[in-house]
Design a protein that fits this description.
With about 400 residues, the protein is of the alpha+beta class. Helix content is about 50%, strand content about 15%. It is built from 12 helices and 10 strands. The chain has helices at about 5-25, 25-35, 40-55, 70-85, 90-105, 105-120, 235-250, 250-265, 280-305, 315-340, 365-375, 385-395; strands at about 125, 145, 150-155, 170-175, 185-190, 195-205, 210-220, 225, 270, 275. The strands form 3 sheets. Strands 1-4-5-8 form a 4-stranded mixed sheet. A 4-stranded antiparallel sheet has the order 2-3-7-6, with no helix packed on it. α5 (about 90-105) packs antiparallel against α6 (about 105-120), α5 (about 90-105) packs across α7 and α9 packs antiparallel against α10 (about 315-340). The two termini are about 30 Å apart.
């Protein structure tokens, strides 16, 4: 693979940069760069801006509203957005459910749900993990029993990210309790406003309400909300997870975070000289930069495979492992670089309008919060230990 961008690709980069300069709201970019909390309105605003330009679902086919980009264009766009301080696109509808519906949904589901994902009319969350069924999704116990033209759903999901904002949830449910674990699971779309759905907040270590528990008690779901075939949901779940794991790698976010870390290390003093000149710190900084450059290449290979009609297999697991390790190392180094300024954790300082509470270098208020929050990266989307098992089976046949 030629890693040098062509003149056409460089022109596309210029187009993306010009778009971001003109349309990315300064207040959103400020929040992202300073590590401040984004609210629902912030995320919806950026969603709408990208959708109006036709760049929201950048990996969807053109017939469903995608821009028709190739792998390199998508890579350039995501990196430029991260460097510009653009908010992350909420992934559940656009990056997770959308590809599943495009590949496995029937025509009526595509025509109904896909435009609503793009318009933001539906906010989706993911109903996979349960108590006792996290990385081992084959152990899900939430049941869906067919009764006429409805399924009746009972059970519990946990770690449901941004579920407090969602009106829809895509769920793995057990439709055959007698079948082999993976064979008895179905993929169901559930309206969160249905009677019997209860959302309870989980407050994380950094003080944020990001995740939730969701309970289902005799929730009636139209049978037409079943995606694909009954008891074949495991296949669809694996397909979705390849997209989630690739997205978790967060190459663009790591590039932006590394640039910020370099700025901090160049200004913070250690024993009378910039921290970047400390041999031990400089060695760790160089190592993570080398790892990131290597991962960029792997990321391009995986995206190219997807653009060519393939589905990433073991490569997505590799990206998930290395991507999360790299992001965690950058966050750890950033926290170290902030020194004592990262020790006091003022939750209020992470909200716009309270920046006066923050002290120290840029982003110091968020350094500890981000460090603790992103310990989860190596766990969700299938823990890194699970990913190593997947790689062993797919590549080594073990």
């Amino acid at each position: 693979m030629d890693l040098q961008f062509t003149p056409q690709e460089e022109a596309f980069r210029d187009e993306v940069q010009a778009f971001l300069k003109e349309h990315l709201p300064a207040e959103l970019s400020h929040k992202v760069r300073a590590g401040l909390r984004l609210d629902k309105a912030d995320m919806e605003r950026w969603h709408a801006i990208l959708n109006a330009r036709g760049w929201l679902a950048n990996h969807w086919p053109e017939q469903y509203g995608g821009p028709g980009w190739n792998a390199v264009q998508k890579f350039i766009f995501e990196n430029e957005c991260a460097l510009a301080g653009a908010p992350r696109i909420v992934p559940f509808g656009v990056n997770m459910l959308g590809p599943v519906l495009i590949k496995y949904g029937n025509e009526a589901q595509k025509q109904y749900w896909l435009p609503r994902i793009l318009s933001g009319e539906d906010w989706w969350c993911q109903g996979y993990s349960e108590p006792g069924a996290g990385s081992d999704l084959a152990s899900v116990k939430t049941t869906a029993v067919r009764q006429g033209d409805h399924y009746v759903v009972n059970g519990q999901k946990t770690w449901t990210t941004l579920g407090q904002h969602a009106n829809m949830i895509f769920c793995l449910v057990r439709t055959d309790r007698e079948a082999k674990a993976q064979s008895g699971i179905s993929f169901l779309l559930v309206d969160m406003r249905s009677p019997g759905v209860e959302v309870r907040p989980i407050i994380t270590l950094d003080g944020e309400h990001e995740v939730n528990e969701v309970f289902f008690t005799d929730v009636r779901v139209p049978a037409e909300n079943l995606v694909g075939e009954e008891n074949k949901g495991w296949t669809y779940a694996k397909y979705l997870l390849t997209y989630e794991r690739t997205n978790i790698a967060g190459v663009g976010f790591s590039v932006a975070a590394l640039e910020k870390l370099k700025r901090v290390a160049a200004t913070v003093q250690c024993n009378g000289r910039p921290l970047a000149q400390d041999p031990l710190f400089a060695a760790r900084l160089a190592r993570v930069e080398i790892d990131l450059e290597n991962m960029k290449t792997t990321n391009l290979r995986v995206i190219a495979a997807v653009a060519g009609g393939g589905v990433p297999g073991a490569e997505s697991s590799m990206l998930k492992i290395r991507g999360t390790e790299i992001r965690q190392e950058i966050l750890s180094l950033t926290r170290r670089a902030m020194g004592p300024y990262a020790l006091p954790f003022e939750e209020e300082a992470l909200h716009a309008g309270h920046e006066d509470l923050a002290v120290g270098p840029e982003g110091a208020a968020a350094a500890a919060a981000n460090y603790f929050n992103y310990r989860k990266l190596s766990i969700f989307g299938g823990s890194n230990e699970i990913q190593k098992n997947i790689i062993s089976k797919m590549i080594l046949g073990l």
